[in-house]
Amino acid sequence: MANKKIVIIGGPSTGKTTIIKHLEFIEEICLHEISRQVTQEAQQQGIDQLFLKNPLLFSQKLIEGRIKQYTDATKISVSRIFFDRGIPDVIAYMNYINKSYPSEFMDACEKYKYDHVFLLPPWEDIHKTDNERYESFDQAQRIHHHLYEVYSNFGYHCIEVPFGNVKERSDFILQNVL
Predict the structure, then answer these.
(1) Which domains does the chain have, with CATH numbers?
(2) Pair 140, 14: CB distance under 8 Å
């Protein structure tokens, strides 16, 4: 039996990683976001923001990493796996900055499908920036729009996660994946 692949999406600083960590704490299988790793590797090579300097290279690295996560997940014998961001996020961000990308990005979104998509809306009260997360709240709202649009265009029904503490939000997700 194939496991359910559940992706948690949202703009920057919406609580995705906090929810993923909580789900992991309660012994759910979770795959973590890779964009921070890609950003940090570039920073070690002297490139402050690879996404801003070379968005196509950054996005290619994300596509490759997320496809690997997805294929690795198919080999794990559990009923469900949670992902911190999915493959279509890459297209949403490229659309956000109005940059073109190769057709292989679209092909990857068509080939590797998720079973459930949970969308975390922008939340000003928890929004903050750091070395890898530099987007303002206004930018986070625009990214949210692009995420919703891209996932919808690929046929996903995005389930919006209401505001609340991490347990309430995690419980909402768990109750809606049954």
Answers:
(1) 4-175 (3.40.50.300)
(2) yes
More confidently predicted of 154 and 131: 154
Q: Cα separation of 19 and 164, whole Å?
A: 11
| Strand partners for 5 | 81
Residue scoring higher pLDDT (4 or 126): 4
Higher pLDDT, 175 or 55: 175
Q: Are 117 and 157 in contact (CB under 8 A)?
A: yes
Ramachandran region, residue 64 (left: φ > 0; alpha: ψ -120 to 50; beta: rest): alpha
pTM exceeds 0.70 = yes
Sign of the CA dihedral running 162, 165, 166, 172: negative
Q: Which amino acid appears at position 98 of this protein?
A: N
